[in-house]
Amino acid sequence: MEEKGNNIMDEINKLISERKQKLEELRKLGVDVYPRNFSITHAISQVREKYGTLKAEEKTEETVSLAGRIMSLRGMGKASFAHMKDQTGKLQIYIREDVLGERNYQIFRKFDIGDLIGVTGKVFSTKTGELSIQVEDLTLLAKSLRPLPEKWHGLKDIETRYRQRYIDLVVNEQVKDVFCTRSLIIKGIRKFLDNLGFLEVETPMMQSVVGGAAAKPFLTHHQALDMNLYLRISPELFLKRLVVGGLEKVYEVNRSFRNEGVSTRHNPEFTMLEVYQAYSDYNGMMDLCQKMILSIAKEVLGKDDFVYQENKINLGKIPWQRFSLYELLKEHTGLDFTNIHGLSEMRKAADRLNVKYKKDSPKHKILDHIFESYVQKKLIQPTFVLDYPAEFSPLAKAKKDNPELVERFELFIGGEELANAYSELNDPVEQRKRMEKQVEEKDIGEGREAEVDEDYLRALEYGLPPCGGLGIGVDRLVMVFTNSNSIRDVILFPQMRKETG
RNA sequence: GGGCCAUUAGCUCAACAGGUAGAGCAACUGCCUCUUAAGCAGGAGGUUGGAGGUUCGAUUCCUCCAUGGCCCA
């Protein structure tokens, strides 16, 4: 129904009907407006590499074939210039009636900005020294029916950019760069871990019992099995089952889903890296994390410093600084949180510090808020924050000398939380106690049955080796490396409400 | 969930204090064989996000709704 509505809209849109008319005229002239294929000899970047040094008015004898989208047109009667664009760059083409022939030039005059074309011709340099193709043969590869955004200002409307990313990519050059960097970062992760002998695995995205984090899940239903399933909020418990099974070094680049608010740093589906290594612990994970991010920076950015949100960040000063959570809180708030125990004391501390919280916020959420407002934004250079309270970290192993704290760290760069890691709790009896307590207190996030994952506990009972686990927010890492201030700028198709109107 | 802001031609933006909406690009019709934000001439393009209200008159003021952005929860 909606589609029909859109088609009616299209029909009344003058610009589109003009192009449809041209398409019909081209058909009448015997042009296949949506042909099957086209043989390319070069990408535009290859032409530039090979002939970038041509002097003004210099010609070559090599015939090349390129394909791409028309981005601009400058007609001058019996000759025209245009720019075409492929994935690798832009190049000027020069079309003359006396070279192309009268009929083919007439056909060309029906082309529009946005059309996909193939050109065959010789590389040359114009009077002003711009590398160009003297077109000898021109083929329409696909007719474009919708006008592109303006050539100079591009597409600025943020909503349209996110909803119609295909056009954002066509007209806004930097957007492609961000997603190329994203791809390189993920490649860099795989290369780094594979070289260390880690095994990449895939675990269920649809889980009947959710775990590994406190968050509201998405619910779905399997018809044939007639059972409810949740989309995973984390792959953690499955990856640790694999370590029980003897896969000692595993990782998963995983899409996870959380049924919570959207913001500049939260998309309902997001990408994480989770890594588990048997016989290691959170110290080992700190070392791994530091080396991995540094190696990715060198590979992707070619250096170990960069600018994020007007701050210069230097990853090269190894080891990265480490502070305990309570130490940082004391330094920045003046309060000693080791003495703050109950919920009411935590509320008092928040009130005193002018930090707002919801009436039903549990203690750890309030502490998070205090940390975010007083400490997090100041952690610009890479910083490991260590030793979190045990009551907020049910899957982490307690510190040997202080059972109230766990062996856990979070990594902050540029004021953003990028990683979270612990020495994994492998005592099945202790794990059961903590899970049962969570279920009792319903401290797992709303929207799901509070349920102990019995199969996970059974796996632990067989024996999980001492193990370090590390999670890295891949979207956040891309944000930091590409200096993007919204997660929506690093996700190709961010979640939006349904389009209206 | 709350607050503030935005929504005007295909795109980017104007419109004083409420007086019937303008420009550039794109498109259209001509002219033009080294242009490059090509140029010159001409004509066209709008239910100002939607629905109500106030007013002689609303893009402008008010209410509600939709979508988006930023901040807070």
Give me the CATH architecture of the largest domain, please: 2-Layer Sandwich
End-to-end separation in angstroms reads: 13 Å
What value does the average pLDDT take? 93
Radius of gyration: 29 Å
Number of continuous helical runs: 16
- Number of domain modules: 2
Overall helicity:
25-40%
Number of strands: 19
| CATH classification, class level of the largest domain | Alpha Beta
CATH names the topology of the largest domain as BirA Bifunctional Protein, domain 2
* Global geometry: elongated
CATH superfamily of the largest domain: Bira Bifunctional Protein, Domain 2
Summary tags:
OB fold (Dihydrolipoamide Acetyltransferase, E2P); BirA Bifunctional Protein, domain 2; single chain; 5-stranded mixed beta barrel; elongated; 501 residues; RNA-binding; 27% strand; disordered N terminus; 2 domains; alpha+beta
Written overview of the protein:
The structure is a single chain. This protein has 501 residues and is of the alpha+beta class. The chain folds into two domains: 147 residues, Beta Barrel (OB fold (Dihydrolipoamide Acetyltransferase, E2P)); 259 residues, Bira Bifunctional Protein, Domain 2 (BirA Bifunctional Protein, domain 2, 2-Layer Sandwich), CATH 3.30.930.10. The protein is 35% helix and 27% strand. It has 16 helices and 19 strands. The strands form four sheets. Strands 6, 10, 11, 14, 15, 16, 17, 18 and 19 form a nine-stranded mixed beta sheet that branches. A five-stranded mixed β-barrel has the order 1-2-3-5-4. Strands 7-9-8 form a three-stranded antiparallel beta sheet, with no helix packed on it. A hairpin with a 2-residue loop joins strand 16 and strand 17. The longest helix is centred in the middle third of the chain and has 23 residues. The chain is elongated. The N terminus is likely disordered. It binds one RNA strand of 73 nucleotides through helix 2, strand 1, strand 2, strand 3 and helix 6.
